[in-house]
Amino acid sequence: MECSYVSSSYNVVVGSIGIQSWNKVQVKSSKPGPSRKVHVRSNYRAVPAMCDKKTEPSSKQSEVPSPRKGRVQIEYCVGCKWMLRSAWIAQELLQTFESELSEVALCPSSVSGTFQIHAQDEIIWERQRDGGFPDIKILKQRVRDVISPTLNLGHSDCK
């Protein structure tokens, strides 16, 4: 399943959330316009999705993502205010590996000083172990080595 969020009048697919059972709930609003549906999953908050009047999500949205696609998880310390850095790294990775990644997850941590990047459940960067924050060129090479070893990164491949 894909999750989508409302952006103006368009559905924007944000990321893959795996195969889960969903319950659809119709939400009435006093504002004119299309109805809203809220997809609810147990142990997760509701994810609003704007749908056309009484139409189901397209078949493209209901497809299961390819298991060959990679997943990157960025775990960062909330107290150290590293969310913006994490979001920037996520954007860089999504732009570089647009067809190789199905998801980049930002995971806030309450453990002081935490900054780890996982690719396919393998730690590829740890701030304390690797001596600070990653240079984006080095990080892209490490992600490539795990996700798609044959991919050419262009200028980021030069040593």
From TrEMBL:
Bilayer-crossing regions: none
Pfam families: Rdx (PF10262)
Keyword tags: Redox-active center
The UniProt record lists the keyword Nucleotide-binding: no
Superkingdom of source: Eukaryota
NCBIfam families in alphabetical order: CXXU_selWTH
Protein name: Selenoprotein W
Organism in which the protein naturally occurs: Timspurckia oligopyrenoides
